[in-house]
Automatic annotation (TrEMBL):
<feature type="transmembrane region" description="Helical">
    <location>
        <begin position="67"/>
        <end position="86"/>
    </location>
</feature>
<dbReference type="Pfam" id="PF08510">
    <property type="entry name" value="PIG-P"/>
</dbReference>
<dbReference type="GO" id="GO:0016020">
    <property type="term" value="C:membrane"/>
</dbReference>
<protein>
    <submittedName>
        <fullName>Phosphatidylinositol N-acetylglucosaminyltransferase subunit P</fullName>
    </submittedName>
</protein>
<keyword id="KW-0812">Transmembrane</keyword>
<feature type="transmembrane region" description="Helical">
    <location>
        <begin position="106"/>
        <end position="129"/>
    </location>
</feature>
<keyword id="KW-1133">Transmembrane helix</keyword>
<feature type="domain" description="PIG-P">
    <location>
        <begin position="65"/>
        <end position="180"/>
    </location>
</feature>
<keyword id="KW-0472">Membrane</keyword>
<dbReference type="GO" id="GO:0016757">
    <property type="term" value="F:glycosyltransferase activity"/>
</dbReference>
<keyword id="KW-0328">Glycosyltransferase</keyword>
<dbReference type="InterPro" id="IPR013717">
    <property type="entry name" value="PIG-P"/>
</dbReference>
<keyword id="KW-0808">Transferase</keyword>
């Protein structure tokens, strides 16, 4: 009897310690004290794999991108409210509330103006770069280049089913025919 009991308390076999994630490792190490059958662990792993998409947030919590987005949106709202209160509240009211250390009201107009000018200049710069990289209209690179794909004329069809044609370039003559008749 004593010998059989020590056999039951031996660590689980290596096949029962199949790990899918770091969290699974921790849960298996905690579960060594309990008696688990190998089939129970395999069923849990199969269930976790099948419900991965639906139960991911329940098991592992929200994704970091969602958390960063939430924190970023809350921070943006708070910063916007502070900025609007600072920009539109008269100085005597701020002094009455005990707020005496704040930037000049000049920056309430200057910072948004600088940001708008920066955005407009970035868009102009981006369009200028695109115009510089684009070949001139008289260049043959406008019509043909290293990545040009000719349309294949062979199509294999099975019965009434027509396969989707692979991506290809439309020739200039076909475009002119379609657009100008």
């Amino acid at each position: 009897m004593g010998r059989a009991k020590t056999m039951e308390e031996s660590p689980p076999s290596p096949t029962s310690l199949i790990v899918n994630s770091p969290r699974r490792t921790v849960s298996l190490l905690r579960g060594r004290r309990q008696k688990h059958r190998v089939s129970d662990l395999d069923e849990k792993a199969a269930g976790a794999a099948s419900s991965f998409a639906t139960g991911f947030a329940e098991v592992h919590g929200p994704k970091p991108s969602e958390v960063y987005g939430f924190v970023g949106s809350i921070t943006t709202v708070i910063a916007s409210v502070i900025f609007i209160v600072w920009a539109y509240t008269p100085e005597p009211w701020l002094h009455y509330l005990g707020i005496t250390y704040y930037p000049s009201k000049y920056w309430a107009i200057a910072i948004p103006s600088f940001l708008m000018v920066t955005v407009v200049l970035a868009m102009v710069f981006y369009m200028g770069l695109n115009f510089m990289v684009t070949p001139p209209p008289t260049s043959f690179n406008v019509m043909f280049d290293d990545y040009t794909r000719e349309r294949s004329l062979t199509t294999s069809s099975v019965g009434e089913e027509q396969p989707i044609e692979p991506i290809s370039d439309i020739g200039v003559n076909q475009i002119n025919k379609l657009m100008f008749g």
